[in-house]
Amino acid sequence: MTLNRTLAILGFGGHAKVIKEIASLNGYNKYIFFDDYKKNKIIIGNSKDLLKNKKKIDNLFIAIGDNNLRKEKFIELKKYFNIVTLIHPKSIISLNNVVIGKGSVVMAGAIINPSVKIGSCCIINTGAIVDHETVVKDYVHISPGVKIGGQVQIGTSSWLGIGSTVINNIKIKNNVLLGANSLLTKNAHKNSKYIGNPAKKKDEYN
Fold first, then answer.
1. Has this prediction a pTM greater than 0.85?
2. Any residues with CB less than 8 A from the CB of 175 and at least 6 apart, and which?
3. C-alpha–C-alpha distance, residues 63 and 8, integer Å
4. Pick the catalytic residue: 15, 88, 132, 141?
5. Distance CA 98, CA 119 (A)
6. Residue 69 scores a pLDDT above 90
7. How many angstroms separate the CA atoms of 5 and 66, rounded?
8. Which distant-in-sequence residues (6+ apart) come within 8 Å of 149 by Cβ?
9. pLDDT at 1 > cutoff 60
10. Mean pLDDT within 75-102
11. Contact between 120 and 70 (Cβ < 8 Å)
């Protein structure tokens, strides 16, 4: 007999569609959608409506791609709901001392090697590689095809663009944007944008 497992999803964009598919592979079979910016017959309401229904909802996933907005909603909602972690069954995650925080998602084809620490509400996107002893802080988005070397530190709310690469032992401070296909070979300062091969600081990133 199939158990009725319901997941509330905050967000109704493309990211939410991927989340729904991964959730179904994690045993969920019923979905309730909320969104602060869109309206249609499927969406029940916005964040305020989500809170009004908190006694009826056990499990929630925040399917918002924007790091800062995802952080805001996680901080607001974590005391009211069980914010779940979702792992695609076709990802590869080492059994040796890997930690993945609440509300994070690991997508298909991602590889997470031994002793990696991933914080809360992170996105480890399709085909990303996170090598040994790397620390990924909260609210980070690692885009599709990103390659991260060993013993890298990635600060809160940073965003690594599609196909970018970070060599071993690099320290990335909070709120850094690394451009698509860029190669980061030096430490990255907070609130900054880095682009190119090798990546160079371009301007401030807010």
1. yes
2. 155, 156, 157, 158, 190, 191, 205, 206
3. 10
4. 132
5. 11
6. yes
7. 27
8. 131, 134, 165, 166, 167, 168, 169, 170
9. no
10. 97
11. no
- Least-confidence region, from 9-23, 30-44, 104-118: 30-44
φ, ψ of residue 28 in degrees (nearest 5)? -85, 145
Gap between the Cα atoms of 113 and 131, Å rounded: 5
Query: What whole-number distance in Å separates Cα of residue 161 and Cα of residue 178?
Result: 6
pLDDT value at position 24? 96
Quick check: is 88 catalytic? no
Q: What share of the chain is helix, strand, coil (3-state, %, to 5)?
A: 15, 30, 55
Mean pLDDT of the 118-143 span: 98
Q: In what order do the strands lie in the sheet with 30-34?
A: 43-45, 30-34, 6-10, 59-62, 82-83
Q: Which residue has the tokens 């979702």?
A: 86
99 beta partners: 117
Work out the pLDDT band at 2, boundaries 50, 70, 90: very low
Q: Which residues contact 129 (CB under 8 A, 6 or more apart)?
A: 110, 111, 113, 146, 147, 148
Percentage of the chain lying above the pLDDT 70 cut:
97
